[in-house]
Structures
1.
Amino acid sequence: MKEVPASGAFRQLEPGPIVLVTTSYEGTPNVMTMGFHMMIQHAPPLIGCVIGPWDHSYRALRGTGECVIAIPTIDLTRAVVDIGNCSGDTVDKFKRFGLTPQPARSVAAPLIGECLANIECRVVDTVEAYSLFILQAERLWIDSDRKERRTLHHRGDGHFAADGDVLDLSEHMVKWRHLPR
Ligand SMILES: Cc1cc2nc3c(=O)[nH]c(=O)nc-3n(C[C@H](O)[C@H](O)[C@H](O)COP(=O)(O)O)c2cc1C
């Protein structure tokens, strides 16, 4: 994993991939699957996430204020679904799904070695009525050597689209030249 500026987090999340969220609560690492997220601001990079109060991850995030958003690729599809169908209350998911926790730099939650990108995040605000966490991306790590780079996009009920063709219209983005590249 190579660190790149956290200002590039939007490039990873704006396309709306399914992500994994890691936490570390009372010394125990955990991971969940999350589809309900969105970029809110470029700088500093802010991300909105809805995490249900019934999840172990909700309690961990409330308790620690820290997490990592990890971006899996299509080789991890089966694990992504199964991680989202069991709880850290009863399962050591890193062990069960053969994931490699790697130390993050700014937060106690681990990076996931098998993922394309990892974003270290800190909670900066919450909206309790919607179980909405506003996270600030503090560090961004990317595995540039990874061969499989296609992300997963959840269409609901376990149906996914794999990331596909790229259409480059960057020459037309004349109003947005000041944004991070
Ligand atoms: C494809 C998929 C997307 C999901 N998206 C979310 C989500 O956005 N927010 C959420 O709270 N739970 C979501 N879940 C459910 C959690 O991942 C699930 O409740 C998980 O068991 C929580 O794990 P934990 O108790 O270890 O935190 C999703 C599950 C799947 C399979």
2.
Amino acid sequence: MIKADVIIIGGGATGCGIARDLALRGIPHCLIEKGDFAAGTTGACHGLLHSGGRYAVNDPIAARECYDENQILRRIAIKCVEQTGGLFVRLPGDSKRFRELFLRSCGEVGIPTEVISSTKALDLVPNLNPEIEEAIKVPDCSIDPFRLCMLNIRTSQLRNNLIFTRHKVTEIIKSHGRCIGVKATDQSTGEAREIHANIIVNATGAWANMIASLAGCEVPMTLAKGSLVITNHRLTNMVINRLRPPSDGDIIVPNEAVCLAGTTSLAVENPDKIGIEAAEVDTIISEAGRMIPHFNNTRIIRAFSGVRPLLKSQKMDSHEISRGFRIIDHQNGMYSIVGGKLTTFRLMAEKMVDTIMASFNLKRACETAAIPLDGQEELSGYPLSKRLADMKDIVCECELVNRKEVERIINQTGTRNVGDITHRTRLGMGPCQGGFCTFRALGIMNDMSVVSPEQSMAMLRDFLQRRFRGIRYALWGDQLREEQLVEYIYLGILALEKPK
Ligand SMILES: Cc1cc2nc3c(=O)[nH]c(=O)nc-3n(C[C@H](O)[C@H](O)[C@H](O)COP(=O)(O)OP(=O)(O)OC[C@H]3O[C@@H](n4cnc5c(N)ncnc54)[C@H](O)[C@@H]3O)c2cc1C
């Protein structure tokens, strides 16, 4: 049996942020995640470090939190954030009244804005629709959610706290009505572990009610699925938002080699049972195409979706539900933390750890806003072209990942899962979506004797199935042609069977 002061369930941005904060305040803890870090909503998000502009009109408190955190993350997470800046563009027919309301609301919240002419906007983003009436500049950024989680958890790892990925919590252990620990199953070996602690933090986002129910409690939530599509290159170097009330398909975010456009919002019951509907992809492409017309003839390389863990609300339209967060004290040694945004994860963690410190009767102030994230010095950061300088033995051409980097991750994590390399290096996240680099990475794992040839073939099969589930929504034109080439490589040269 393992013992810590605090158990955190969930390794998304919220859980990893809480772990870092606890580490800096010297509280021994154990984080348990059923997949890899960022395996849930965090890894399925748009990657927008909000300026707060999107929420200024309907949700000023969340907007202010976003703006403050945006300023903090630019400083402490320099290698995760690309300071792109953002534009809210007004298309012909978009309400002028909303424009006034937007500017006034941003002003009240304290978000700096600058109205620029369409000509100036087109100078900044030449691919913009030339018919835009005007644009408003805001301090939006692009952020890498995977890197953000890995760097947050690094502080806990460096201070010898316990981190279990690919371990699913299946039971909350109770004694005299109090939660005193959890049982978790290793997803690779089936081995069960028992971990005890004084406090349990449920940071499982969209799964929070499932975990709470293991302890006989409830977390009232509205689950809203959102889908996104990825283009094969950057169509804009700035974040582009539509100047209208939050709606489907109104944001385009550049991220490294690609662009992400979305999103949608549909109520769902179960976060493990979500799919993408063709109509969502159509809506996103046509709405994005109104802001950047090239969207209509650019290769879409993939679609994916995630589930927003929103606070329960009477509002019918999930676009209108608050992006604020809440800490629920279940009065039995377990806390749940739900709602919020990726942008506000650090603040959520700070408030959660303040609550934990108070319950331990300990005083030590939060330092996460002042201290830069550990481990950034060994990362290249943005932009992508910087990485080309000393590149040898390239494994992934799209994201410029070389053999040395792949070997470093394998040695550092001892992973037997190619997805873990992807989350830590961006291998396979670019235009070919792993088509040309996954088998190379598996070859390296073979050379290093981490996996056997039989295991790597099974992993390759699993990877192709997962990849195809996202790619099949984007199969037309050049993308279809490239996909056929990839298919010939895997079916013809590597003799794998067709994905189902
Ligand atoms: C489509 C979409 C786009 C978005 N875009 C943005 C954006 O651009 N900017 C922004 O600020 N916010 C965005 N958000 C919101 C943001 O992504 C989420 O609010 C945030 O990532 C939630 O993080 P989390 O750590 O609370 O939850 P999650 O990231 O979901 O983490 C919960 C973790 O718990 C784990 N877990 C669940 N059950 C168990 C178990 N039994 N045992 C162990 N582990 C378990 C899961 O595997 C998961 O990794 C977006 C959301 C969606 C859906």
3.
Amino acid sequence: MPTLVRISEIGLYLRCPRLIYFENLRRTPQKIDTKHLLLRSLMLSFSQKNDLEGQLKENLARLEAELPLVYEIEPEEMEPACRELEGEIAGIAQGLAGHLDHLLPCLAEVDLYSDRLGLSGRLDRLAPGSTPSLIRTGKAPEDGIWKKDRLMLAGYALLLGEKNRTHINQGLVEYPRLALVRAAQIHSVDRARVLRIRDRIRLIKEGQLPDRPEDAPCPACWAADICETRHSLASRFF
Ligand code: SF4
């Protein structure tokens, strides 16, 4: 049976297909981004619609104590990240107040997999109406959502749809720092793209190094050195 392709690998593939190849070779785990982990954990920590600001403050104090026990986080990174986020809590709570009916009640970090689809993944939030929701700690596009997130939502919609024997047609992307929650339609064409990308990822994981895309984000890439020295099968022949 072929190994399951993770939905997060679809996001990685869209950044650069070669990253799938190099991640597969990587021996040491990726360094944890403390600020990202903290904000994501905080966003998954509230469960009530009243006094969101109070809940977030209380949960931040708990996360400050607990996260270093669970993850390898340097103490000197944790404290400033918590103080920075503390200063943002009032704005985040105010911005999210109008979206809580779309976000709660929810299940957090839902593991999904399907042998039939050859896909697996851990969904950030399963919102009301079996709606998949992603938490993004970075920038939002001017309108709508990024292509990567659209396809990742389509991947989760496939998994949820198979599990619940239904079609999931809508997803959410949460941008807590920007006080935004954006809804996005999930189209059949995106579901089909996910399956095509799944097949390409399988080939890469079997050892096929893809060509360098022209628009690859190489300057900020951790794999730049090893990537420079590897040539794809195609470039060896032509
Ligand atoms: S260096 Fe560029 S081409 Fe190579 S893996 Fe990184 S982003 Fe992709």
